[in-house]
């Protein structure tokens, strides 16, 4: 968006715009700061206004451009207002990165799960993304394209005995992202389900399965993957699953993308399976 205060005749650099939801902590904060350092104008979205202001201040202190606003992704009207406010300041969103997420508080088997907490996880992790899609994607369609990154997890594609709400939400998020990718393919919409690996965050360190972990994913590798996605280097993987730590932008760029590879699907028992 041109700067109306710039002197006449002076060229103003127009930065690509990334909107990061859930940007005030964990992986989201790393991505907001990293995208700004990589030359993106960043819209910072989070529930806590003070935390949003802190991230915006950190970006600006590092020489980047950011604006922020507080909104709860489970509130559809609030998300619409927040996206409109951010785009009014920065310009249209080129890249939406959804890091807003919730994990149930207790690590229990599914039949002991609390229904209210289960529903709360789904509201944040799935319904929240739908609200973001409704706020951002129509503009992308009108402009001829855009990219979305969903923060995914290995829980989206493999079974485990606990955290059933989180796993169900990430599988549903994968399917929602795939639907957006399929519906928007002809108009330039690209969607990526990206696991960040295991970054050391308050969420990951609270999980018993990581209690003894000593090797953690470098947040810089997560930023590098999202930057590559934002630049269009990995568009062949739209609708598919990527995992930082096992994948790199270079390895994916060289990988063959065939059939239903890296998608959420039913595995046949062999070539004689009618599902094959």
From TrEMBL:
PANTHER family: DEHYDROGENASE/REDUCTASE SDR FAMILY MEMBER 7B (PTHR44196), DEHYDROGENASE_REDUCTASE SDR FAMILY MEMBER 7B (PTHR44196:SF1). It comes from the Bacteria. Keywords: Oxidoreductase. Pfam families: adh_short. It comes from Kineococcus gynurae. This is SDR family NAD(P)-dependent oxidoreductase. SUPFAM superfamilies: NAD(P)-binding Rossmann-fold domains. Belongs to the short-chain dehydrogenases/reductases (SDR) family.
């Amino acid at each position: 968006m041109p700067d109306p205060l710039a002197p006449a005749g002076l060229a103003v650099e127009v930065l690509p715009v990334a909107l990061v939801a859930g940007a005030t902590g964990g992986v989201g904060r790393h991505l907001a700061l990293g995208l700004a350092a990589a030359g993106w104008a960043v819209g910072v979205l989070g529930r806590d206004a003070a935390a949003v202001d802190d991230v915006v201040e950190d970006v600006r202190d590092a020489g980047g451009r950011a604006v922020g606003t507080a909104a709860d992704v489970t509130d559809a009207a609030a998300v619409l207002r927040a996206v409109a406010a951010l785009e009014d300041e920065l310009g249209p969103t080129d890249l939406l990165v959804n890091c807003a997420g919730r994990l149930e508080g207790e690590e229990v088997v599914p039949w002991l799960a609390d229904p209210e907490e289960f529903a709360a996880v789904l509201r944040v992790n799935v319904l929240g993304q739908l609200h973001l899609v409704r706020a951002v994607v129509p503009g992308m369609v009108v402009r001829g394209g855009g990219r979305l990154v969903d923060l995914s997890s290995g829980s989206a594609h493999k079974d485990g005995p606990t955290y059933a709400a989180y796993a169900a939400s990430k599988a549903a998020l994968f399917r929602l992202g795939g639907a957006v990718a399929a519906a928007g393919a002809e108009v330039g919409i690209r969607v990526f389900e990206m696991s960040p690996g295991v970054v050391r965050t308050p969420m990951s360190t609270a999980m018993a399965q990581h209690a003894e972990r000593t090797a953690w994913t470098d947040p810089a590798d997560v930023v590098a993957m999202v930057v590559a996605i934002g630049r269009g280097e990995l568009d062949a993987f739209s609708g598919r699953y990527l995992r930082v730590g096992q994948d790199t932008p270079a390895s994916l760029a060289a990988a063959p993308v065939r059939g239903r590879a890296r998608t959420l699907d039913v595995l046949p028992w062999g070539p004689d399976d009618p599902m094959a």
